[in-house]
Amino acid sequence: MFQRLLKPLRSGSFFLFGARGSGKSTFVLKQFLPPSEAGRCLILDLLDPEVEDRYARDPKLLERLLDSMARPPRWVVIDEVQRVPRILDMAHRLIESKGLKFILTGSSARKLRSGASNLLAGRAFLYRLFPLTQAELGPRFDLDAVLHWGSLPRIFSLKTVAEKRAYLRSYGLTYLKEEIQAEQVVRRLDPFREFLEVAAQANGTVLNASRVARQIGVDVKTVQSYFQILADTWAGFFLPAYHRSVRKSQTAHPKFFLFDPGVKRALERSLDSGLASGTSAYGDAFEHWVVLEFQRLNEYAGKDYRLSYLRTKDGAEADLVLSKPGSRTVLVEIKSSARADELEARKLRRLQAAVPDSAAFYLSRDELSQTIDGVRCLPWHRGLAEIFGLR
């Protein structure tokens, strides 16, 4: 079992969100809850169709079950809570009346945006769990392997290429069945299935909903709703264009990144293709991985940076911009090259000059740390550690 970086507070109830397969249940039951507490927990698995049906019909069953127990549980764990949103009404009541603590896991936020979920505002912390980071993998980390297969925990228990390929291919089918079809998120499944492949092919590029709509034969609003579904089910996220005004940044087209490189490759059907260093495919995969590491560490370290990208009218670009009020803005360029490129570093320096009170980092696979014209050129993993203040 991998030791995860996430450290939820134990003082109160919390939501734990994350894409399917990211290890939420394992984290709660095998890392967060010590053996002394695990035996005194009430666990409801709403992935079990019978359990889901019982509580969907009668959410008050939870209160009656708790009243029948000889002593109150240390924690009440409800897995995949979005399947029965009304149970949150009961959770809210029990938090208030009995002082119980809940752990509520979920792989979709769509049904929890309104209604009962609002009652827990301020009464439950919110955390997210991602596929494994480089730090969590420790000595088992292999850059080329995670670029090809991703870092969902299950991947690391599979021994053969055939097993890994089969798992990732089935992941997309499971996602369609259990997150999309079961919740009746879309009326027609075939266009959404085609959309997933196109979205994977466009991963990390500036979002062009009109082009995607033409490719799959639906209207633009439908495509926009499809991307939002991926975000709501934690299968991807938008990276907005940078502007010091948040309002203005929202008028520019964002980029969209899927949450895991292996799932991305499975959806675009490229698992059989190798990733050779020096190719554009390798460079795209490397940038994808490093962007994901920034997203994950930003959450785990509680830094609360706003992540965006910067592109000027003349084509100058920073792959990532980290910004928040009262802090220095950080510009990051990500290159898969084994040697830092002085010309690229100087381009970033010129871009930095246009962003007041900013620092610039050029992250690559070059293990040599150096400064070029004020730009910190670091190995990608060392740059992450420095930016987030990690050891």
Task: List descriptors.
globular, Trna Endonuclease, Chain: A, domain 1, alpha/beta, 13 strands, Rossmann fold, five-stranded parallel β-sheet, 391 residues
SSE inventory with pairings:
Blueprint: E1 13-17, H1 24-32, H2 35-38, E2 41-45, H3 49-57, H4 61-67, E3 75-79, H5 87-98, E4 102-106, E5 124-128, H6 134-137, H7 143-149, H8 161-181, H9 189-201, H10 209-216, H11 220-232, E6 236-239, H12 246-249, E7 255-258, H13 261-267, H14 280-300, E8 306-311, E9 317-323, E10 329-334, H15 342-352, E11 358-364, E12 370-372, E13 375-379, H16 380-388
Parallel strand pairs: 1-4, 1-5, 2-3, 3-4, 10-11, 11-13
Antiparallel strand pairs: 6-7, 8-9, 9-10, 12-13
Helix pairs in contact: 7-13, 8-13, 10-11
Q: Biggest sheet: strands side by side, in what order? A: 8-9-10-11-13-12
Low-confidence stretches at least 5 residues in length (pLDDT < 50)? Answer: none
**Using DSSP, what is the number of strands?**
13
Looking at the overall shape, the CATH architecture of the largest domain is Orthogonal Bundle
Q: What's the mean pLDDT score? A: 90
- The biggest beta sheet, please? 6 strands, mixed
